[in-house]
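Record type: monomer structure entry
Structure origin: computed from sequence
Chain ID: A
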Amino acid sequence: MSINNFEVINDGTNSSANLYLIDGLLYKVFYDNAFIVEKMRNLTFLIKEKPIKPNAIDLLESDGELVGYIQEFIPCAKTFKEGIDDSNYELKYKAVLDVFKSIKKIHSLGYVIGDVHSKNFIYNYDGGYLIDLDEIRIPEEDDWKFRDYYLVKKNNRTPNIKKESFYTDNVKATISSLSLLLGFDLEEVVRDESLETLKIYIDWLINDDELKNQIFEIFDRSDQVIYFDEILESKAKLFMKDK
């Protein structure tokens, strides 16, 4: 079987690989062999441990070299980016809770996700999922490796935070989740500006002062990870109401 005989289904959502749907499974074929040793380590871990869904199933190799992998396919799924205009707030709320459950599971196993953004979170009527984990990182060992969609910076007077961590994972996931729930692309704001500027938008979009302050604490407390889902559950009615 030649994979070149199958249609690419990227639709521009993946910048590091081609995606193919073959016999109900997703085949991800890398464009290049950048950080291939780390990817092999990560995929071996994901295939063996199966920490979260969608499960990585097997490696794809050519002449003994890693070229990609096979994983479960999630049907009828949207990315958080695509779901910004979705009016099913109950479904989006559940998706956010599911994604944070996956993030916390990966963190509990000692890995940082790193390249966190709205196209790496997907959801359907069954729930929310975290995808593209072949570039997860071991803190200290993998610092400054891999590519990121964007880097966080506190304000426009400080440099980007180039060292990804549990803190930056949580901040970026919070931003992606708020974008989905509020129907406004906050990710592009912080990508072009800073967390300081982002706070101005959040102040405009959210009326609940307690929730705003809790979100701002997530951004400000780089010494302590306060996961967004833990404050979201107490404020569900703000996002579940008919808008």
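Annotation 1: The mean pLDDT is 90.
Annotation 2: The longest helix spans residues 89-108.
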